[in-house]
Amino acid sequence: MRANYKMQRLYVTGDLRKGVGIEADKAQSHYLVHVLRLAPGAEILLFNGRDGEWSARVAAVSKKAATLEVGTQTRPQPPTPDLVYAFAPLKAGRLDYLVQKAVEMGAGIIQPVITQHTQASKASPERIEANVIEAAEQCGVLAVPSVRGPVKLDRLLADWEKDRRLIFCDEGTETNNPVPLLRGIEERRIGLLVGPEGGFSDDERRQLRALPFVTAIPLGPRILRADTAAVAALALVQATIGDW
Q1: Mean pLDDT of 75-89
Q2: CATH number of the domain that 213 lies in?
Q3: Which residue, 20, 68, 109, 182, could crosslink 56 as a Cys pair with Cβ 3.0–4.6 Å?
Q4: What is the domain extent for residue 68?
Q5: Are residues 63 and 100 in the same domain?
Q6: Is 95's pLDDT higher than 90?
Q7: Dihedral sign computed on CA atoms, order 85, 78, 96, 105
């Protein structure tokens, strides 16, 4: 069922069921009362990543708080996408964009990875989670991706599930066309790894290419910025072997 984009959507942490009262947190209350200027009786949509999407009405407002009353379920909870999106963190503004696009494109797990050329190694899980929630609110996403803490590339590969194919974007491949390579993947469980602005080091590329569960793909004949590469790679994966 398609999302209703005409109504304001709000992510909450509490359980959702008919008749339950939800106290919006301070930031949400400020947004509802002072930015949107919603009055008692106004309707919005709520979701928590577990119970689907529910209609709700503003039951009461004050200068500092808004209370919401849950109505009926408008959409059931879908399964979380089984796509691991691993990426080398970028600087703040571009990292925000990258995470938001990953949510929109159907990532189920957001995994920052520290590589040799990573420029912004201190990726804040709290900032990433905030961007995940913002993207989910704006784009009608109900299956909110989980955010993992940053790990070094060696650790990611050592702990990788061997029945999950890892696709990594490698500008050194022998072809410019990724589609035949992607269509040749038999596993249904997949992960995508996008490197930093400077690309993977030669040692990292050799390490990745030596692993039996890894597939290297190109992204065409042009050099892409890391955030552009992320969107392009996610679109390719979803369109060829994903949920499109």
Answers
A1: 95
A2: 3.40.1280.10
A3: 68
A4: 9-75
A5: no
A6: no
A7: positive
